[in-house]
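Table S2 (text version). Query chain:
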Amino acid sequence: MVDNFRLIKTYVSAPEVWRLYGNSPIINNLVNCIHHSDTHPSMRLYAGSRGYYCFACNEGGDVIKLTSTLLGLSPYAALCRLSKDFYVPLSLSNTSLDDQVQSKRRSYAKHEAHINNTRIVLSKYHRMLFHAKSDPNDPLFAESLSDLDKVAWLLDELDIDPDSILSGWQLYIQRVSKSLIT
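Corresponding structure-token output:
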């Protein structure tokens, strides 16, 4: 069996962890330190398996420690959380590990692309309805009166719970997408 901690560190980087769990923006790979009261970003997030390091308080660590500190979890709980959130399967043999991880990541990337495509379609439709609402002669005028708020709500919810929007509103989104093509 593989060392699961090393596995997570290989496939998950500190910037990825920060983007998912952090609470301040990343500027030139620097963020406010999680170990001391920081007003100027002094903690560098490194790509790959190098983790993070704060130049002000000299604290550093790997993605497990970063996740553990950010979420208040034990190292093992942080490992499990990272495995789940970044689609890295644990306790596998070394031979098929890369294939399985890459397959999960491709699936995740495809899902993210679908969410982004849906966001683009709904944004275009929202703009069309917004402009149609001010012109009673526009063919989308009546539709804009009934659907503008719905589309705005869908865009908001897409950021909060994309899976429920994609599954529950699939037919509506398909109809909108087709109407944009024609």
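Notes on Table S2: The two ends are 54 Å apart (CA to CA). Helices lie at 4-11, 14-21, 63-71, 75-85, 94-132, 141-160, 162-168, 170-181.
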